Amino acid sequence: MQTKAGPMLVSNLELIPGRRIVAHYGMVQGSTVRAKHVGRDIFASLKNIVGGELKAYTELMQEARDEAVERMIAEARSVGANAVLNVRFATTSIAVGAAEILAYGSAVRLDDQ
What is the 8-class DSSP label of residue 14? Predict the structure, then answer.
């Protein structure tokens, strides 16, 4: 994955074929809490009547996932990792209309190819 600070391998696999883990730094995580927007809620209510994708919410969730991943990668860099493996996402309701998106995985150093 190309990030603002350069490349970082991010994968939901436990191992990368052809690469060897030379150091394991433990779990790293990144999260963000997002609230729904009143304007989006009104449009979503109307969309519920006719059906279809709620694109405003899809975009909101994608932005939240991207931010959580960026924060997870920053934590991985801070411990010296060049990859985050076994990446997972979790979502938790924090309050009415607000949710946390959490990205977490194992920070590792892979051998050079």
Answer: S
